[in-house]
Amino acid sequence: MYSKDGESYFIVDAHIALWDARPENIRNVQGQQFIDCFYDYHANLSPESEVWTKEAYLYQGGERLMKDLFEDGYVDHAIFQPAHLGEFYHRGFGQTDEASALAAQHPDKLTYNHNFDPRNGEAGLDQLRADAERFGLKGVKLYTAEWHGDSRGWRLDDPMAYRYFELCRELGITNIHIHKGPTIRPLDRDAFDVADVDHVATDFTDLNFIVEHVGLPRLEDFCWIATQEPNVHGGLAVAMPFIHTRPRYFAQIIGELLYWIGEDRIQFSSDYALWTPRWLVEQFVDFQIPEDLTEYAPLTTAQKKKILGLNAAKMYDIEVPAELRLPDADEPETGPRQPEAADLGAMAAV
Amino acid sequence: MTLTAGPPTVVARLADDVRRALDVVMDPELDEPITDLGFVRSVEVDEAGGVEVHLRLPTSFCSPNFAYLMSSDSKDALTALPWAARVVVQLDDHHDSDKINAGLAADAGYRGTFGQEAEQDLEELRETFRRKAHTAAMERCLTALLRAEPDRDVESLGDVRLSDLAPGQHTDALVRRREAVGLPLDGSSPVLVDHAGIPPDDVPMALRRARSTRISIDGNAHFCRGLLRTRYPGSEEDQVHRADGAEAADEAYDPTFIALTTLTTAQTKETTR
């Protein structure tokens, strides 16, 4: 929990990882390039005081994770969203055993989501059944840019993927977190295309689809799809740290999300260990839309509370102290959520 | 960017030719020349007409289709130089560097380079981003108009014609983007249209969608610049300032940057955002 100026915020970090990119786990040049790329993200967007050494960045371990999130970072509950990356790392990038053991040890603080890859076919379906039982899964993290043998990406609307979603439905895995990386298949099309999210969200209305990084670098495509689908949500992983070096861009991202999907469908995350939650929570609570961006209404305290934790808590049935809860906004399920407050010149038209 | 030693005037002139030739190569996603983005890592030329250019990108995992487009467009632009006898273009430090560089060396084309991962060509991809570039340019002009005329009704933007726009960078940019997607350029043409020239039924919604596109392109263009600077220290020397989407933090990398707060008129403000 974080408190400031008489307000208290329940914090759910909805996208964290316990990864291992130490040299002994790196399988090939791509594994090296992947962690180098993460570190550049970290170094480029963090405040100077929050930049780690490269060595510290390669692996954190459970103890440091618990400290960074729960002792220093104000987090009440965090959700593992592991990327497998078996083609790049010998034992995978996200550390399944270690992270799930940590979650089992601290069930009040941690939820472990796992992943699947429809290219594993029938055997993968059996594995998903076993994983659901082993981890008590409520959610999965899917990375469509994962490499797999000769294939360098898959689509959510591939027929085999539908079999997996049907199984998710059967097993009660309701929260599907999607990371659209640079998916190489089909190479002719935009690698970050989110059109497949539209198809699955329409066909599986009883599942929640949380698009991580709010579709970045395709914010506009994400907003347009998400506004039409009541079961599509936006995860702020990677978008959050822009609050520091690019606050106007961050303001516009938040302003667009509030307009297109509304305050009940946006989830905070630090994307740990890409970044740490402490400074992100502090800066977000202090944040306001710059006054000259008159196309957006000012951000309210209630909106901040929902984004920082209440929305994810609701999706994951995480208990929130009664005094910190808030009701849903009276907003439409689809279409623009606050058109009257959200445009330059619109006031003149009202 | 490094140049090889040699007779200074000749080599310098040829290297300059190379750079000017590369000015026409665009990053389709960011809608900017690769020379402005700092993606040209080195240029080597010799008097016998040999050219070797190395390109670099903000991350190893930038989309390979864009990486290929920029690399092969660079090779095409350099091969067209009348004096160029031998052209080598290499993409450095990308996860597909080996594949792309081999394809470029063999002039294998898109399908020859990527094999089964390539279906037809990258024309649809280029067109998608030409349309987005047009959408963003259109939004910049119309939002500037709204800020300049705060009492203007958003609905009335549907009636704005090209000749109603104030002359300046944003209008020039819109005209160029209209030309690229094949829209008419005469003053009586409506501004708020899609790539096919069709006006929207819902004007405020169309403006909002266009705005999200503009925010996305500006945000990506600055983030990519920042990542390149982090990945290749010193590369800021090769980057040209981008006014659209600029923020206070950019001042550190750009001596010509003018902070928003020091500007007074609404119109000037708009052009620096």
Automatic annotation (TrEMBL), chain A:
Amidohydrolase-related domain residues? 39-318
Transmembrane annotation, as ranges: none
Q: Do you know which InterPro entries this protein is assigned to?
A: Amidohydro-rel, Metal_Hydrolase
The record's region (Disordered) falls at 327-350
| Entry coiled-coil feature ranges | none
Q: Which GO terms describe its molecular function?
A: hydrolase activity
Q: Which UniProt keywords apply?
A: Hydrolase
Any Pfam family from its record, for instance, is Amidohydro_2
Which branch of life, at top level? Bacteria
Q: Per its record, how is this protein called by name?
A: Amidohydrolase
What species does this protein belong to?
Answer: Nocardioides ganghwensis
From TrEMBL, chain B:
Signal sequence, renumbered to the chain? none
Where on the tree of life does the source sit, at the highest rank? Bacteria
Q: What Pfam families would the database entry show?
A: FeS_assembly_P (PF01883)
Ranges of residues in domain MIP18 family-like = 16-87
- The protein's name is Iron-sulfur cluster assembly protein
Organism encoding this protein: Nocardioides ganghwensis
